[in-house]
Amino acid sequence: MQIEVLKSKIHCAKVTEANLNYMGSITIDEDLMDAANIIEGERVHIANNNNGERLDTYVIKGERGSGCICLNGASARKVQIGDVIIIMSYAIMDFEEAKRWKPTVIFPNADNRL
After folding, report:
1. Fold of 2-96
2. From 114's CA, which of 20, 29, 31, 108 has a CA 20 to 30 Å away?
């Protein structure tokens, strides 16, 4: 049996931009992506702690060291600059492997830096 489990989590990042006129996605500082074991194009689930909104999108690399967390396209309507969000990705794996699995979880500071 295969199940879906948490793979990566960026816990409580601050939204720095919301760009409605982009085609879609979330732009994340590449340092945060590396630390959280998230790659460009990966599907992520986003939970907004400020308003309860939840959405799925995919990741685009942001400038390394910038602290950028930018919701693009329609997702930009679900956040405001300064909102605190949780970014999660998942993996599908064998049930027995999942029992031993440990996700990568990072906790950026108020400036979205490690």
Report:
1. Barwin-like endoglucanases (2.40.40)
2. 20
